[in-house]
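To close the chapter, one final illustration. This time we ask the reader to focus less on the individual chains and more on the assembly as a whole: which components sit near each other, and how the overall shape emerges from the parts.
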Amino acid sequence: MGRKRTKPGKIRLTEVAELAGVSPITASRFFRNPEALSLTKRVRVESAAKELGYVPNLAARALASQRTEVIGVLIPSLTNNVFSDVLRGIYDAVDGSRYSVQLANTRYSILQEEKLLRLFLAQKPAGLIVTGIDQTPESRSIMESVDCPIVQLMETGPDPVDMMIGFSHSDACRAAISHLFAQGCRRIGFLGARMDPRVQRRFDGYVAIMKEASLYDPRLVVTTPLPTSVTLGGALLADLLTKAPDTDAVFCANDDLALGVLFECRRRHISVPEQMAISGFNDLEFMASAVPTLTSVRTNRYEMGRDAATMVIEAIEGRRPEQRVVDLGFTVMERQSSMRRT
Amino acid sequence: MGRKRTKPGKIRLTEVAELAGVSPITASRFFRNPEALSLTKRVRVESAAKELGYVPNLAARALASQRTEVIGVLIPSLTNNVFSDVLRGIYDAVDGSRYSVQLANTRYSILQEEKLLRLFLAQKPAGLIVTGIDQTPESRSIMESVDCPIVQLMETGPDPVDMMIGFSHSDACRAAISHLFAQGCRRIGFLGARMDPRVQRRFDGYVAIMKEASLYDPRLVVTTPLPTSVTLGGALLADLLTKAPDTDAVFCANDDLALGVLFECRRRHISVPEQMAISGFNDLEFMASAVPTLTSVRTNRYEMGRDAATMVIEAIEGRRPEQRVVDLGFTVMERQSSMRRT
DNA sequence: TTGTACGCGTTATCAT
DNA sequence: ATGATAACGCGTACAA
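The assembled structure is written out below.
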């Protein structure tokens, strides 16, 4: 036999409907589409709900409707400042809406990403935001076979699964190197940590432009799979100077490294920018405040997150953005650390 | 009339049970408590599930069981490095378990926190992690009347709602000031941003110890409700030096400010630590890498998050920790920026 | 605009 | 150890 589970204190849609003197489905409609009710009933349901302190049961809603109001977000890291800005953008856009965020951390593993993707999709999210464009083939086909809006975040590229928002990391790096060229730098080192796909593409940009200028030299490159840190920046510079003592500038694939390089230069009494020009990447807040101020490439992280979430929400609600691929660009912030001629 | 909704491709518990030749409830038990099945059935259900690629429907599970496997986390900020470390700890602890995290951002507002709390609890989370001990009275009574485990995070204090993990911000600040005293500093400034409850308690510690030493002077205090940043650190130091030009040390309520102070000192050709000793708070990674290296108070942020999540999970599963209140302590990391006598 | 009838996929209860 | 039955709270489909 079954059971009796109904606790007396429970406030369900039924209770609200009863107090309002309408049928449960009318009360249900009130919460999803108030416009569909006559003014009288709308008011009655509203006050009944408030009086009883009704809160909808999301599980029941999800089960009955076969969908949720959850936007799944897959990011590679929680620690990286870059992603905290992106996340802030996402939450800012989502918080004002009816949707909520379900966050998962892939830890820079596309296999983990694939696993999480399956998990997410099994719960029928309303939308999905994933990082980057380097999913596994399986992930791709999963994503393609799914009917919710998906935004790929952080970079632009060919073949969007659905929508895409970001910028060209390769071009952004090239722009920074161009700036260093313009300052008279020739022996420009590349320092990279973690070497995730986006850092890799910055590196590709570096290699391309250096080769075009016939200035490429593998000794100028120092990279590591280790996660980035300020301390690591110093260590990488030390390596670089061992391999190529005549280096006259460094492009750091992110700002932590750049700050570490600045400190290491101080330690070694290398003057910045005279003996060593420095450019970072991302333009974290401290870059403009350092002494000397540090050149970097500003990326629109907050906007990326915010707009990604907005695009997903719009698409969920049937208003697909006219542009499937949005390039938010970048700006080379030229500061003292790279200004040799003024 | 009703409807026919059952899509042919759907893999539900029923399909798994059918293939395994057992009843749905037996299959259900397999996923929740495999031990309860006979070996034969266990194997049959397992392979059936794998063969069909079964993924449980969490909405149905939540609806039927009247509970979820979600741990709600309320934090004041996504941007602050402090919280990204805490979050990393939480996710690390939760990811290996059956539970998942539902994150919400209170934006340093206890009213927002109260609102989110209501929202969360309506969905019957398995556990809850909240930041700090300064909830509204309403929040407190909501939390007290709830039957899931709750951990208050980031600081210790009297009257835990349930469990608590953190450290004494007041003592931590006092320890830093003591260290500065020991270095011969007397005119020690306090720089604070945001002034959330934890920064406020650091300030309380500062005031107390300065008064005990008869060294307290309101001109030495510069605070602002603005969010912290490196740039702000420089600005606050400028203010401080206007009010109290004879300042010989600054305690910065967080490390961003300390870095900004360091840069501002360089700009003004104030030598650190000779003319100005500096201490930060939190011991972010860059502190040990700066030139000079920057003194700070190390706090165990990752561990706080990880242990909070672990405590919640243990409590959910009936193994309540013997200690309801865990003090993770702190360490004053004495570095060059404050070492006047060596 | 409102209501009727039923099903969403799972687990609790009770019985064997 | 296993199963039959009902219930969880809501939304869809259709009818009026």
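Chain A is about 45% helix and 15% strand. The CA atoms of residues 193 and 228 of chain A lie 5 Å apart. With these observations in hand, you are ready for the problems at the end of the chapter.
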